[in-house]
Structure formats: structure tokens, C-alpha cells
Amino acid sequence: MDDTRIWTAGIVVIGDEILSGRTQDRNVAQIGLWLNLQGIRLREVRVVADDMAAIAEAVTTLAGRNDYCFTTGGIGPTHDDITVDAIAAAYGLGVEVHPRARQVLENYYGSRGGLTEARLRMARVPAGASLIENRISGAPGIRLDNIFILAGVPHIAGQMIDALTGTLPGGKPLLSTTLGCWVPESEVADILRHAERTHEGCQIGSYPFFREGKVGANFVIRSTEADGLERCAADLAAELADVGFETVPGGI
Amino acid sequence: MDDTRIWTAGIVVIGDEILSGRTQDRNVAQIGLWLNLQGIRLREVRVVADDMAAIAEAVTTLAGRNDYCFTTGGIGPTHDDITVDAIAAAYGLGVEVHPRARQVLENYYGSRGGLTEARLRMARVPAGASLIENRISGAPGIRLDNIFILAGVPHIAGQMIDALTGTLPGGKPLLSTTLGCWVPESEVADILRHAERTHEGCQIGSYPFFREGKVGANFVIRSTEADGLERCAADLAAELADVGFETVPGGI
């Protein structure tokens, strides 16, 4: 493990249903949290339509400039599932039926009406790709070099990343700690800026909220160094207390 | 209104807290639904970190190739709020205090401790920009040509787009209708593909789910033509009924 290098990832969310507002995406937050634990930083996300050119542009860009690229959606059995074809075309690869995926689907659908032509679509992979197993639905995810092609249904995508836990090289996990405070963030902006400047390697995000008829904010401190993180949080809490604002460890 | 042209928009979601998985984005779905009603198609979304270069790249690309570009996040009073600076820099513009924004903030903070330097940050706009009023927090959104700079807090962003309702040129609203069905989508993939092919101007999305221990799917038909949409839905329901699957109008 390289202690200094920052490992990054991008996610391409594929699906008209996200862009139309019909479906609330849940995969970005789920994969982002999981990546933190793998020591990999989620650097960017794109949401694109079910469109060959849009998928190709997003995947080649994010896979090209990050260590890892994850896609979600568009790998089911219906006509609007074009992720595999789009990625294969983007890299000039053919599409083939993966023998192990075919076997997995044959087993799964053996007692569920058999492996039809539509279902066999879910065994199609870009030539040379390997599989990411999935215990729920039978249909596996797909790995092509640094590209991980996952399902769109969040609990299936969750199973697929779970199967990858601990297998991807990464750096130090990004740690975070949160201080909640019943204060308008604008009143303590200088204190926040000062705390970030005087604690190297720490970033502080300020996230305001309105609750119980009152204004407050959560201050999230992030660092790869546990000691530095703790010092920054302690100093920030002390500086806020000095001007009369008590903080709530863990956030409000 | 141009009846044939498709008007498109992009959204740039700005914020480390979305990428870290800490905060679940709600603005994409909210703005996507609202855009449909304005006759504007959300074509693409990017989520980027609180980083000048990343914001500039995403905003200039999406604003350049869509009719409209919306940003959410990064317009508060703290050091991590850099959206205005990043967009101004991307277009080679200065940043200035907007007199009307200053006045709005003075009124709002008059009874709340006064207009501090941190709070005055929220009156800064790229030179030449106009304001999008916001009845909740005082701090306004910002319009720079076809770029709409909105708050990150969903209910404030919601107020800002509400203020824009009916003011943006668009085309025909995209209509949709949903048929739910207790069927594995893989069993009816051919019927879906055929229905889409034989109904010009209609797209059909298939969204599987697992509920009450059973497999089902919602089929969402989209079109700008109400008549065509209705015909497609009726034909699809009839074809599914022919092979023994009853559909639930409105979805399951």
C-alpha cells in the first residue's frame, strides 16, 4: 500500500429514469461511503441517459483519469439495457457471452422458466472481461480492466461492491469527524477558515440546516491522519466555545 | 414556443459531501421533475468536488452544449463555498458585490446580528450576473446567461427554481405514463422492444423491483405526444394481457 498517493474513482450513473426525476439515485452515496473504506476517493460522478455515445464519453473520460471507474444501471435483459454494448464499442471490443455467466444464469433460471434469449443478454460482456459475482439475482457484474459495471438496483449493486471489498488497491482511508453546532455558519466562517488553514491535511466542510425552527450547521473535518483529525476537531471546538457556541460531537 | 426542437439542460452538483457519501443528493430528482414541466429535458449531470478547476470544467462543458446549466451548492458564507469564484474565473469575469443582493442581505440580517463580512460573501456574483430571488434565507441565487447558480440545501434550491417557473423558453413537456406488472422483465423483453419499435416517438423504460417476496417491473412510457403515449400504453397492456400478465395503470 502506498501511503502518500491518493487513489481516485469516478462513477457513471446510467439511466433515463434518474434524469427524468422518476427514480432517486442511491448508488452514489452507497458507493462513495464504501470507497472511503477502501482508501479510494470518489472524485467525480456523471449521470447520463441510455445513449451509446453519452455512456462512451463518460466512461472513457472517467476511467482514463481515475484509478477506477464504476458504472451503475443498464445491464438488465431489456432493450433499454445498453451499457455493455456502449462500453465495448467505446473500446473497440466485441461483445461475447461469458461462459461462467451463462452457467450462473442457467442455474438461477433453471427453476424459473429457463434461460430465454432475453435473459441470456445478461451474460453478455465486452470481450476479455471478467465477472463480479452477485448472490441475489444471478446476473453478475462485469469487470473490464479498471471499469466495474454494476447493476442499477441499489441492493444488487451493494452486493456487487461487497464482493469487491478489500480486493482493490487503495491508499489510506479518508477519516472524518463531525461537530454539530446551533449557530448560523455565517457567524463562525472566520473560525472555520482559520481552523482549516492551521491544520495541514485537514479539510473542513460546513453544512447548514434548519431544524426545530432554529439554524445550525454540521462541520465535517476530513483527513487521512487520525491524530491530525482529532487535534483539528478539538481546536475547532475550543475556538467555538470561546465565542459562546457549544459543539455536539458526532453532529446534530 | 418551438414545437419540434428539444430543449436540454445539464446540472452540476458541487460538493465534497455528496462525493463522500455523507449527504444524499436530492436536487437532481427535484430539478429533473421540474424541468420536465418546463418542456426542458435534463440531459446530463455531473457531481464535482469543491475544486475550482473541476467546477469550471463541468460548468463550461454543460453550459456550452445545453440550453441551460444549473449548479447546486457552494454559495454559502464559508471558505468552502467557491462556486461563484470558480464560474467567474472560468469565463474570465471579475467578482462583484451585487447591490440588490447586498440590500436583500442587509434587510434579512438586520434583525439577526447585522451584515458581517462572511455574510456579505453571499452577495458576490460574477460581473454582470442577475439574481434569482429566494424567499427563505435571504441569500439569492444567481443567473449568468444560461447558467443558474442555486443553493445546495434542497428546500432553498426548490424555492429558487419555483421562482423561475414559466420564465424559461422550452419545448413540449415530456409526458409519461407507467404500467406496473408482476412479471420478471426478462420474460417480456421482446414485447417491450416491439412496443417501442412500433410506436414512434415513444421510449419505454423497464424498471424491475423485488417486493412482497415477488419480482415485478414498472414500464415507463415517455413521449411529448399525449395521443401516442396513450396508444402505446394501451397496446402494451393488451400485448401483456395476451400472454397472461395483467398490468396496473400508474405502476406498482
TrEMBL record, chains A, B:
<dbReference type="InterPro" id="IPR050101">
    <property type="entry name" value="CinA"/>
</dbReference>
<dbReference type="InterPro" id="IPR036425">
    <property type="entry name" value="MoaB/Mog-like_dom_sf"/>
</dbReference>
<feature type="domain" description="MoaB/Mog">
    <location>
        <begin position="10"/>
        <end position="172"/>
    </location>
</feature>
<dbReference type="InterPro" id="IPR056596">
    <property type="entry name" value="FLAD1_M"/>
</dbReference>
<dbReference type="Pfam" id="PF24102">
    <property type="entry name" value="FLAD1_M"/>
</dbReference>
<dbReference type="InterPro" id="IPR001453">
    <property type="entry name" value="MoaB/Mog_dom"/>
</dbReference>
<protein>
    <submittedName>
        <fullName>Competence/damage-inducible protein A</fullName>
    </submittedName>
</protein>
<dbReference type="Pfam" id="PF00994">
    <property type="entry name" value="MoCF_biosynth"/>
</dbReference>
